[in-house]
Amino acid sequence: SSLDPTKVSALFKELYTLLSRKDWPMMPERSFVDKYGAKGAAQIALNLIDAVRSAESSTVLVEPLRGTFNATAGTFTVGSTATTDTLMGNARRPLLTEMAVSVPLSKVTENEGGSAKSYYLCQAYAEIYLPESAGDAIDLVADNYTLHVVNFAGTGAANESAITAAEIRGGKPSRMEPGEYRTVIRTVKVPASATSSPPVAITLRMALSIGSQRIDIAPLASTTPIAYTAAPGAPEANLRSYAVDDPHVKHHLSDWKEGSQTFDGPPANRALGASASGTPIQDHDLSGNVVADSVVFPARGTGVNGMADLLGKLHSGMVGQAANGGVPWRTLRFQPSGAAADELPDWLLLELFASPLGTAGVTAGIYPLEPDQTNGFEARGGLLNVNSLLTPFTHDDEALARDLPLRSLLTGTASFSTESALNTAVENIRERTAATEGKLYGKDRYVFPGELAEIAGVADSGEASEAGLTQIVEQATTRSNTFIVYSIGESLRQGANGRITPTGRKQMLYLVEKAKGDMRVVYQEELGL
Question: What pTM does this model have?
Answer without folding.
Answer: 0.86
